[in-house]
């Protein structure tokens, strides 16, 4: 009986993985749409404060369960990682979302993989082979195309939004190395909750100082709540569930899908155009990501 059931169970897990990976990409891709909708009403600081707090609270039960592994002396390090890996990048993406189509942020987010390779080379002595060097060149060429093109908005605004997205991706790249080197061995989902909540506390004074005084509509509130609960808290939980089941390398394939979903959601729900510069930039950046991953394997 067990011999008959085992393949069926394995096939069910494969089907579940095949559904969950694009689901995660779709959730993270739509986060750029939610920022585009909510950022003009809340402003970047207030919106990110809500995102951090809600996301951290969704994962808080996992942090509570592992609380013995998080002594007080560890929390300054968690707060630093939270600022670098969550608070500041979230603010940069939200700031860019006020000024440019949602697809711009989604495309630049894929640069995280390339910046992680660059940071590893510059700061941690990791090697960059021929493929990774070509990957970096292709990625930065894509950024140049994106910044120079008229992607559904004013050229200067697009350029600054691209710069903000790239800065956020760079900080994500730094954060990946910090988590790997200083928080390794801890439950990843609990680490995510701790860093999100620490970042929320750090940002609270600035967010309160910039809290909007005007009434905020239901559409913006809905986008903000979904950004925190779905795209941050539940998405991180799904991400670490996939890492535990299929491994980090296979889960990282989500990187290829986020820009595609981000652009598609914005086109479908916000009627944002998909321009030639966006398509060319996305192709160059994703080709660079593919090359970088091929060498890392």
Automatic annotation (TrEMBL):
Location, primary (coarse class): membrane
Source domain of life: Bacteria
SUPFAM superfamilies: Multidrug resistance efflux transporter EmrE (SSF103481)
InterPro entries: AA-Vitamin_Transporters, EamA_dom, EmrE-like
Transmembrane segment boundaries: 21-39, 45-66, 78-97, 103-124, 133-151, 157-179, 186-208, 220-239, 251-268, 274-292
Location relative to the cell: Membrane
Protein name: DMT family transporter
Originating organism: Lysobacter yananisis
């Amino acid at each position: 009986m067990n011999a008959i059931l085992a393949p069926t169970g394995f096939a069910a897990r494969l089907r579940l993985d095949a559904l969950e990976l694009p689901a995660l990409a779709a959730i993270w891709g739509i986060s750029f749409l939610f920022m585009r909708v909510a950022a003009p009403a809340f402003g970047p600081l207030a919106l990110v404060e809500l995102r951090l707090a809600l996301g951290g609270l969704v994962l808080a039960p996992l942090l509570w369960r592992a609380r013995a592994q998080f002594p007080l002396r560890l929390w300054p390090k968690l707060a630093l990682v939270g600022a670098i890996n969550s608070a500041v990048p979230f603010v940069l993406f939200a700031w860019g979302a006020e000024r440019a189509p949602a697809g711009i942020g989604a495309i630049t987010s894929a640069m995280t993989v390339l910046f992680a390779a660059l940071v590893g080379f510059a700061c941690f002595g990791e090697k960059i082979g021929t493929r990774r060097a070509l990957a970096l060149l292709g990625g930065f060429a894509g950024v140049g195309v994106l910044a120079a093109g008229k992607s559904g908005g004013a050229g200067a605004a697009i350029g600054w939004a691209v710069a903000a997205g790239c800065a956020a991706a760079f900080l994500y790249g730094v954060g990946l190395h910090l988590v790997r080197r200083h928080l390794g061995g801890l439950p990843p989902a609990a680490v995510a909750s701790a860093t999100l909540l620490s970042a929320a506390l750090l940002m609270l004074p600035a967010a309160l100082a910039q809290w909007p005084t005007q009434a905020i509509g239901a559409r913006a509130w809905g986008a903000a709540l979904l950004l925190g609960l779905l795209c941050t808290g539940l998405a991180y939980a799904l991400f670490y569930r996939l890492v535990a089941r299929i491994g980090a390398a296979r889960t990282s394939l989500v990187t290829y899908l986020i820009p595609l979903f981000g652009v598609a959601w914005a086109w479908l729900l916000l009627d944002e155009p998909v321009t030639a510069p966006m398509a060319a930039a996305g192709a160059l950046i994703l080709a660079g990501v593919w090359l970088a991953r091929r060498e890392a394997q």
